[in-house]
Amino acid sequence: MTDGADTMKTASPPPVPPAAVRRLRLTNFRSYRELDLELGTSPVALFGENGAGKTNLLEALSFLAPGRGLRSAGADGVALRQGGMDAPEWAVFAEADTLEGGFRLGVGARGTARRETRIDGEPAAQNALARLLPMIWLTPAQDRLFAGPRADRLKFFDRLVHAADPAHADAASAYEKSRTRRQRLLDEGGQDPAWLSAIEVEMAGHGVAMAAARLDALIRLQGEIDRRPEGVFPRADLALDGTVEADLAEGMTAAEAEDRFRAALREGRRRDGAAGRTLTRGPHRTELLARHRGKDQRAGDCSTGEQKALILTLALAQARALGRQWGVAPLLLLDEACAHLDAARREGLAAEILASGSQAWLTGVEKVLFEPFGAAIQFHEVRDSEVFRL
What we know:
Helices cover 39% and strands 23% of the residues. It has 390 residues and is of the alpha+beta class. The chain is globular.
């Protein structure tokens, strides 16, 4: 088959080159004992029956980003089961075109050991992958994200932020560790005010860094949404409902915001101790608000199809924003993205992806779902965890 990158359906070339996987190798990952797949830089369609192993491929790719992957399974939950037992080791290896050129990226684990990350064979931090291979993913579970729990929306938005600012994950992790340590002290009676104060200083610093990164990402994302003409994907109006974010948005300096948040934590010690959780409003309780602009309606009140279209609006806008920011189109992992989309929106999705230049990996049960891409996509059929290029 001709590489789709050479036969793009769109007349004009994409504005930036893609971050792309040129070769994907799996060992004992989920249902794949061995896989060795060579690819071009154009979008990739994976089609086949339910349970064939399509999502497992996207999950493997998601492990080339920091975190627990698109299923939140973690390193100890993805090894191939053999004879009722996990394989002794699993690995995901990719040869990729990245922000800084070609690299060999690898992740894996032995038994119950922690996940290891390697770049060109050398040990590396997980966040180094985020800097090289920016990535955005969507799963069917997010189709009704706006109608679900607040925490799920915040987690989704934080992953968009992380794609733009790899340091955001470090700040979020440090914030949660400090919050856990503070709560533990409060649960024990909070007998050491000096130690509590020191932890709250850490929380405030990391919390303000998180809020600042979120605001910056929101401004860029909203700008991309507003820049595009009205199309098959609705425009969204976004906002962050959070105390620290509000302080920064109103012009407060980072130092002033830290002081205010630290004071709120100090004043809330008794309440948080009695509740057994951090009720004091901080970045952990921020809400992502979204409205369907055309209908002037809360996203959570829209139909399932409209909510899915809004989620795609955010993901595609963030892909464009990252292209402007980094000069490279991010990897897009879109699990069942075409499901429940009408023909016009499938056409629109193909046009948006091709215009962005991203190497999008899309799954679906039928090849016909990806016909709008024409010859500009690499077709692979997945059958019983075997991949056949067409």
